[in-house]
Fold each of these.
Amino acid sequence: DTEVTQTPKHLVMGMTNKKSLKCEQHMGHRAMYWYKQKAKKPPELMFVYSYEKLSINESVPSRFSPECPNSSLLNLHLHALQPEDSALYLCASSLDREGTEAFFGQGTRLTVV
Amino acid sequence: ELKVEQNPLFLSMQEGKNYTIYCNYSTTSDRLYWYRQDPGKSLESLFVLLSNGAVKQEGRLMASLDTKARLSTLHITAAVHDLSATYFCAVDGLSGTYKYIFGTGTRLKVLA
């Protein structure tokens, strides 16, 4: 099983809403990532979790709050987003070891209205 | 700060032709990855290159890595329409951080 599963696939939310994105993998990977991708741009790293601990936060605004409840799950809690936060949010996972590629989920297409 | 640049940014080519995409990065690393992304889809891993001089081939695509020049190439041989996609290279960050930093991407369109 080389699959990273993200839900929901699409999400429309208002600027005052609170929502969560979910990501799950069962490959035994201990590193998990959130990326944000705008149209026709490369993915931008947001957060990295290693062994369920936040190891990298790329200066992401606090309206994005990651959570790693266990080694298979990764959440991204969203609150008071802005329209410019509309993007494809990609979750990825990898072995916590140098030289291994990251596997990506299908993404959540987020629209903030 | 690690920077990863690709060129060209956009490539339109005829079926049957050959071309090369270049990926330059700004810091010492011997771990480079190539991904493919179809419109509106996720990223699919193509190649993992882990040492200077590494070369990998899969079908019409061949990737290589020159860590001394901080350069990777993705060579397309006898392109077919199905190869139309955006191709990204990605480089590991500093040792121990496991952060994949993506290049600017190359949008490839193969014309029938």
Amino acid sequence: QVQLVESGGGVVQPGRSLRLSCAASGFTFSDYAMHWVRQAPGKGLEWVAVIWFDGSKRYYEDSVKGRFTISRDNSKDTLYLHMNSLRAEDTAVYYCAGDPGGYHLDSWGQGTLVTVSS
Amino acid sequence: QSVLTQPPSASGTPGQRVTISCSGSNSNIGSNYVYWYQQLPGTAPKLLIYRNNQRPSGVPDRFSGSKSGTSASLAISGLRSEDEAEYYCAAWDDSLSGGVFGGGTKLTVL
């Protein structure tokens, strides 16, 4: 069955960096675009970034442009989110989600919590 | 403030029909598919409706979606207690070159 497992979350000080990973199984990872979506405590869903199935295109939400980098390793069926210059407002549960095409997020991980605090 | 606008709350009694609206613009709903997600408390979101009105396998036909112009709606008929959840609409936005979500609607089954 389709499974997405995020890891790498934790508590980090403002201005520091963190890398999230998302291990995929149960489907052909290289056929899917992959997204990161976050949810601040008690708030709604916020789209963060997407990477095309072959890594050829990447798009970001405005507040993370220049600070976050989405990448993937299709040989390892793994998605990444490199987060630099973290701010308190980046505190959220970060979900990875698989997309067979058209912003169609048909599979989601369980999420990993990132807390930015001094 | 979310790019897509949803009512913050909705409610109904068991067996009733409830609709949740989602309003956007030409750059998102007006030119792209709409998706709906259900998020039960403490869990990850789940795809409920894709491409405006299609149901993934396993989603009951009590759930239906529609789209007209720059607005969309989710209808839930035969309301059940297990439908109590947060519901989000979503679409790609061509102007932003990014995904957008509605602010979410908390559905309460009275």
